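Why show two proteins at once? Because comparison is the fastest way to build intuition. When a single record is shown, students tend to memorize it. When two are placed side by side, the eye starts asking what differs. So, the first record is below.
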Amino acid sequence: MREAYQACEDIIKKHSKTFYKAFSFLPEENRNAVWAIYAFCRRVDDIVDESDNPEAELETFKKEFSRFASGEHMSDSPYWTALHDVFQRYEMEFAPFEDMIKGQEMDLSGRTYHSIHEFESYCYHVAGTVGLMLLPVLAPGKEQALRNGAIALGIAMQYTNVLRDIGEDMDRDRVYLPEEILAEHGYSKALLKGNVLNGSFISMWESLAERAEAHYREAMETMFHYPSYSQVPVHSAAVFYRGILDSVRANGHNVFSERAYVSEKQKEKMLAGLSTS
């Protein structure tokens, strides 16, 4: 089992320094469970983003998850082995895992998001679900009190991903920005494809950042419900991720040729602020 969890830890260590640092503060059993859940999310996400044949591979993954959900113990895979152990230890639900897969299918369909409602539905499926997956591990018995806050935090983080990765997404011919928001600020997909960074772009970007920050605030209001062992890790993850928005601002809103990130030094400063608040 140790090797299975190590394989999951290797995935999060490679792909998300922010989450890895934040959740490293958890007790070992809870920490391992987070690694296993992250590995599930990362694997299905990579199928869509990195695979040469994402439709076929996602279908295969769905079938594997169906076998897993039916109780089959797929011991040949360290990732399913670790997740099986998580489901044995905690009161997990299958629904958010299924919704996550549906969110990845949205990416495959090349959807255009016309309204903010459609965009937030996508954010729920690919990120709000992660909050729900983690609740039984991070706050057992408090899932209902924390449900809305956990979803809000996931949605806020996905907003942040989208606002940070506009240029990278354009390289994949993906536009997540809702058409109604583009139009509202006098910006267009044609300007986006031309990497035009002007006042309209900044106004549009900031309007979405304000929505993200409102979701962060909603999540922060429920933070006190988390038990002491997980409150700092969850709060840290939220603060680190929210800091990406300020990093984009510090880059002059240049999301086309620079990738915004929060440095290790900045994270240490943020952690020090949490410990004194």
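Second record. Ask yourself what differs from the first in the token line.
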Amino acid sequence: MISLRDVHKVYQLRNGATVRALDGLSLEVPAGAIHGVVGTSGAGKSTLVRCLTALERPTSGQVRVAGQDMAALSPGELRKARRAIGMVFQHANLLDSRTTAQNVAYPLALAGVPRGSRHETVQRMLDLVGLGDRGDSYPAQLSGGQKQRVGIARALADQPAVLLCDEPTSALDPETTRSILELIRDVRDRLGVTVVIITHEMSVVRQVCDSVSLLEAGRVVESGPIEQVVSDVSSRLSHELVPVPEVPRASLAPNDVVLDVALTAHPGQPAAAHVMSLAAEQGADVAGGVFETLGSAQVGRLALTVPASRSSAAVAALREAGVTVEERA
């Protein structure tokens, strides 16, 4: 559904300097997926969104959305192609002077859909996002989460093939964030729309994404299905998605060291119990742990404490059993 191949975007500044926002970025997102794009400020996330919507044309490389090369379209073709892409923003950006229903109908009006044909679509979209009875409400009468639901309904009104969500939950509280992400997954499941979520929050990726890419300096440095990414315990994404637990130095005995253990298990594999049993045999204690279920995999990070005199033996025993373990610096 989305394909970017060796995309470069270079901006020329007034002082003659250049800024390379995208530097050979390549990315594939299959139809029906929910794909997360993460990265720090300046990594190229915003430029990526602008290239996907052809608000920016790449300096070189190819951007294809729903089978169309966005940079090769005429202005008329581009207007039509953009109707296949719905946008959800950090703030809903609703028109304050229009009701909820009028906000959702706005893209239909721009597309030339006759007024009499809009009502059914608008009501269907409001029902989809759980606001079927709020069509006459104005944005000032809605909560932050409700406004974002209206924004999602508006983005879906034109029946797009792709839904781009740019930091859709960063302005929301945790409970509202959870409900919005559940809605996005439900929309994908019901409509089959392909979703790309631009975010800096790993909790968003853990909760809703099927796959994820890490951007750095305008390039994709890691990418893959969530289960595959977290299984590679040497990857940065794996550590950021499921970080090792903190162990305060003050809580350690004078001669204790901390061992970081990473494991991935699928149903029926008692990996966690096995590791803890091995640890106990080596005189180690579990100082902390975190487990996440991502897809069909259970991902765990354990912090073990062990006397320094037994650290090498414990590491060797765990590695011999196929466990990924490192002594914390």
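One difference worth noting in the second protein: DSSP finds eleven helices and 14 strands in the chain.
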